[in-house]
Every structure is written in C-alpha cells, then in structure tokens.
Amino acid sequence: MSGCGDDPVVLSGRSLHPGQANGAVLALDEPLSFWGGVDPSGVIVDAHHPQRGATVAGQVLTMQAGRGSSSSTAVLAELIRSGHAPAALLLAECDAILVIGALVAAEIYDTALPIVQLAHDDLARLRTGTRAAVLAHSAPLAATIMVKSR
For residue 61, what pLDDT is reported? Predict the structure, then answer.
C-alpha cells in the first residue's frame, strides 16, 4: 500500500451489506467457496486454494468474488453466528450468495458482517497484513475503507 508513513489511505466503495469492522487484511489470490472451502473454525481447507491453512475468522477478507455453491449462504451465516466469520468482506464483484448469508445472519442472529464492493484497482491495492477499518452504510450510501500500512 503506498502512502506517506502512517497516513491512512481512504477508499470508497459500494455498500452491499451494512456494518463496521476493523482487522487485518487477508487478500486472497483466488475466489473462495465457503461451502467446502472453509471449515467451521474459519480455516481455509480447499486443497487447491493458494491460501489453504489461513484463517478467515476476524480478518478483513478481500477477493475478486465468491466462488461456488449457493450453500455458501448457510455456511457464511453459520460462521457469523459462531464468531468464526471474516470481520468484513471486500469484493470486486457483487456476490448475491454472500450478501444473502450476511442478511440471514443479521435477521436471525442480530449480527452485522459488512460487505463492500470496491473497484478492481482499489481491491488490488490491499495487501495481507495491513490494517483496515470498514464502515458500510445502508444502501444507497457509500462505504469507506481506511487502510494503514502499519
């Protein structure tokens, strides 16, 4: 992430599901299916995924898009309920399956998982290990991501 010293970089995106979160970024190299790709504790178990063994729990998870089954809705909702979900999801492409998972968890468990769509170039700027604060307003308001390199 380029910037001067500790000055944060502010990115704007489209809120797909409201909420706020803070955490370390986990930038995935490839899309991830929550169904079969993540275990109940939030560890990536997909044998073919480049970040296999990493945990999504509590991370500001970035990826181009989700991958796979509509069952990811239920898996994501369960991860949210159990406290093993990402702190936030940042995507380049809207993924209705993941948004529905967050909507279901908000309705049933009264929890919020912010999901934000960023421009491809902005998403590519986010690096694993950087700290990010995500504020996703209710649609149609924009979302703000503040990223610090340290």
Answer: 98
- Where b means 16+ CB within 10 Å and e means fewer, 123-142 reads bebbeeebebbbbbeeeeee
The tokens describing 112, both together, are 């919020």
Point out the catalytic residue in the list 33, 69, 71, 149. 69
Tell me the angle at which helices 96-109 and 72-82 cross, rounded to the nearest 10 degrees. 40
Within 10 angstroms of residue 67's Cβ, the number of other Cβ atoms is 19
Residue 140 confidence (pLDDT): 74
- Distance (Å, whole) CA 84 – CA 145: 21
Q: Residues 42-45: contacts with CB within 8 Å, 24+ apart? A: 42/79, 42/84, 42/85, 42/86
> Does the active-site annotation cover 69?
yes
Mean pLDDT of 62-87: 92
| CA distance linking residue 114 with residue 121, whole number of Å | 20
Q: CB within 8 A of 9, min separation 6: which ones?
A: 1, 2, 3, 125, 146, 147, 148, 149
Residues 6+ apart with CB under 8 A from 39: 45
Q: Tell me the residue type at 13.
A: G
